[in-house]
Structures are given as structure tokens and as C-alpha cells.
Amino acid sequence: MGAVEHPDMVGGFADFDAGHRDLVTVTKFNFYGNRIVTASSDHRMKVWDLKDGQWQLTDTWRAHDAEIRDATWNGPFTGQHIGSVGEDMKLKIWQEDVTQPPNSGRRFRSIFRMTAPQRHPFVSMDFRNIDLESWMAAITRDGYLMVMEPVSPDSLADWQPVDQFRVCTAPERGEETSFKVQFHHDPADITHSLVPDSDPKSLSLVVAAMDTVKVYRTDASRRFYHAIELNGHASLVRDISWANGSVRGYDLIASAGKDGLVRIFEVYTASTNQGSQSSNSRKTERRQQQQQSPSTRATSQSGIGNALANRPTSSVSNRQATGDSLFRHSFKQVACIDSKHIDVWQVEFSFAGDSLISSGDDGAVRFWKRSLAGEWLEYAETDLVSQ
Predict the structure, then answer these.
(1) What is the C-alpha to C-alpha distance for residues 334 and 289, in angstroms, rounded to an integer?
(2) What is the domain range of residue 353?
(3) pLDDT tens across 87-129, in order?
């Protein structure tokens, strides 16, 4: 492993050897930036803690029986949990057990596991937290997306489907594929500023689906609809990032392409007439739900999950906005950056959304910053190959 920049460091890097036996496939900070999880093709995961300015290994364990494709932290208000997906067809959630000594191989234990449907492994996953509630999204190598929620809000050991569907036509056998999924994590979603009475627990997803990017949002019935497609890519989309900062009046989404280009899109959202017309009915419905007893809500939630799990797989063709959609969406590509990478594999916005980091096949990590004139300019670079 090469240079890692801590979120609080300005122009500084901390170097450490992750000690994996094969390619490092995942490096993810937790919410506070003081923990890192690394995962590798060697089937193992490691957790590192920042102590006295140094990254110290907390534990290493064999997490999957094949290459690990993605891993990410849940949190920060539900305890220390990590989700992971691998080529062994498994999705797992790991919970830290602080009673176990560091570097014992038992510090993180599996509390949930599921097998990918239709014999295509999960390749990307993400968590979303609103207050103390969690949601999880995972997508397979052939574009099958699942969004899940815990059966009980007090535990992440049992999950049920909220929605599941294909984001595109299944690729041909042997065709190179590329799929990624990410929730919108900003607590101030732009839809809430436009229609204050809209569902405060509405969810938004951005998906890299082969050679395009798609945005999905939940409607009034908590069903995902295809809000907009950010097209114009000339090759497979390797990665996507949705910036925080909806107060700017639009959403900012970046994509990383196999063609070496990083594209940045501004996504605009406006309310429709239906938004004001259905406001009172939505408030009445939510008030009725809040008046239900906890046991009634849990039974209803579980019933919905079971129904969704058993219904036929839906496709993107019938995922358009329903008649009571509150919003309409449009977009503009505002930048197309030649990243100088041979193939861009990762792209990520800073917390404020004014900087961007990219990495690719050339072994370099590059940092881009938005100027006052609105241009995205390279301002730093580090070569991981020489580290």
C-alpha cells in the first residue's frame, strides 16, 4: 500500500505497508477519518486505527473465500460495522467485538451473510444512515440491484429487501461489465428543501451501469424510480461519486471512465405541481404510520419486505417516475477531465465537494480542485508505484 492522505492533513501523506499478500482492492476511511479498512485479493481484510499520528493494525482476518471486491463502513451511530462482498458470491456484515484482543483474528465477527442471487457475485455495496436507521444497497456483476433494511432497527444481524430490480439489460456472457452503487449521503437532500413535506427518509442512489450513470430516488410509496440518466460516456464507467453539499442548489456527481476521462455533472431538481397537491395526504399518511404501535409497524415492514422478495424481477423499463412523482430532473455535464490515467478506476469527492481524487492503471493518484472560475484543475499528484 502506498500513500494515504488523512482527511485532516493538508498536503501531507502517511505511508504504511498494508502487508496484504496480493493486490489491495479496497481502502476506505470510516466516518471520522480515524479508521481504515483495507481488503485484498488475498481474501483478507484489515482494520487500522490512527494513534499518535501513526496507522496501527488492529486486526487481520480471512473474510471471504475469494477476491474481495468491495468493503465499506456503516455508521457512525450504529456501532462499528463493516460490509464486504467477494467473488465467493457472499455479502457479509462484520461487527467489532471489543472484548477480543487486537490482532487476534477474532476482533470482527460475521453477524450477517447472504448469497448473491442468480449466481452472479456482488461487486459493489454501500450503507445509508438517517438518524439511527440503516439501509444497505448491493449490486451484482450483471446489474441486479438490491436495497435492504434491517428487520429490527436494534440489530444489523437480519435484513429484508426494500426493493430490487435490474438497472439495465443483463450483459452478454463473457462481456466485460462495470457496475457500482452509492447512496447520496448528504443529510440535507435537495428534495427536502424543494418540498419540505416530502418523505424525510427518502433515499437516493447513483449507479454506474456499464457505459452510463443512473440516478434513482424513492417515491411517496418508498419505491425506487429512475429519476435521470447521465449519458454521454464513450466507454465503461468504472466508478462514481456523489458530492455532499446540496445547499449549492444542485447535485454534483462525478464518473470515472475506462477511457481515462473523469466527467462531472450538475443535476438539477425541480418540484412538480403534484408536489403541492399531495402534501396534505402525505402528512396524514405519515401521521397514521407514527400512531401505529411498534409491533404493528414491524409486522407491516416485514410483510412489505417479503412481498418484494417474492415478486418478479423488474427492469429499468418500468422504473420510470410514477404519476404522483414530486420532482423532475435535468442535468448538465460541466467538466470532462483528461485524468492522464490509462484507465480511471476510482474517483471520489472531498467532504466539501470542492476537490476530487482519482486513481488509475498508471499507479498514480491525482488531486483536482475547482477554481473560482468553475474549472477543475490538477493541484497535486503522488506516484504509488514508487512508494
Answers:
(1) 42
(2) 116-383
(3) 999 999 999 999 999 999 999 999 999 999 988 999 999 999 9
